[in-house]
């Protein structure tokens, strides 16, 4: 991007000056619409989510046997919904501001198999591909008991095929572990910021890990190029995959069931605010879509990004989406939040969801570490840094009067609201690594 263009951009969008200065910012989307108005731009609806949900049910008997940790949930990969009242008190004390609503956490950080939110989309896309291949070969039909996939003939069959993906870490973990379990040859192309323990864990599962000294964009591009040279290789495209997106979206109907079980009401008088850490955008985009389909206009989703990697905020705010990267502004895309270290957002997700997302905010690495320590102290919950990005969201929402007025939310409604922090990763972080995180928290 030329200097002249950059000057024009910062003139048209003054917020970019704050992004370039690596300041924490909050931007509420003036173009947010109703679900009815925004849904046509997504190009998918509840029928697609239902289809994804049924596919996951078909695979449940297989997953329950292949991964014993899913036996209690009968092969359904799902996470806990918990209250975090002590953390709410800690947040209020730190910010010296009250939070009137209820503060909860969705622990996708502790999803079985791969210990992160990516266990939703990544595993779903691998299963979808495996099912398609097995159907085409006449080895499987929808009415079968899918636990037959454990039989040697299926592993021998899938060995003929390979899967590739580019990842900062967690997506690679979910795809690598699942693909290897089924019998696929799998390569995970990992960016410079990917943690060594994630690479090691993948290798333990027989996954081919390809390391790069560059960032996420380069790892994805190289993975894509390698896959193009091999007709038997299926490349999982985190930036543009509608299958990944749908795998995440099933979380909406699952959360609705959990709310009903806990008698939590979501309606005009009881709004729901959800805070989602955002990297390239597939995970939070898919979940936000599922939440909108489950709760309609009564749920309000905000994306959270590191100050060094605000790619989705940048793309949506300027309307340039994947035609601009944070590096174009001189932002280095270097962050401790490895899962969010993405310089260029998904154009597909940005364009599909920009009318259905209420806002975006950024936070520093130091803030994420501090919140990591506070959460551990307050609730005994251990997360990786990127998973804390959603934590300050309730403060931003409750103390922006212009935004609340635009929604018609008064103090009474706010007191009846639920704030949900979507915890995205950390359940499989080794003790030594977690101790290092906590040491940086200064709590």
Automatic annotation (TrEMBL):
It is an enzyme of class 4 (lyase). One of its GO terms (molecular function) is hydro-lyase activity. Its EC number is 4.3.1.18. Keywords: Lyase, Pyridoxal phosphate. Its cofactor is pyridoxal 5'-phosphate. GO terms for biological process: D-serine catabolic process; isoleucine biosynthetic process. Coiled coil: none annotated. Residues 100-394 form the Tryptophan synthase beta chain-like PALP domain. InterPro entries: D_Ser_am_lyase, Ser/Thr_Dehydratase, Ser/Thr_deHydtase_PyrdxlP-BS, TrpB-like_PALP, TrpB-like_PALP_sf. Transmembrane segments: none annotated. Pfam families: PALP. It catalyses: D-serine = pyruvate + NH4(+). It comes from the Bacteria. The modification N6-(pyridoxal phosphate)lysine is found at residue 118. Belongs to the serine/threonine dehydratase family. DsdA subfamily. This is Probable D-serine dehydratase. It comes from Vibrio chagasii. The lineage of its organism: Bacteria, Pseudomonadati, Pseudomonadota, Gammaproteobacteria, Vibrionales. The gene is dsdA.
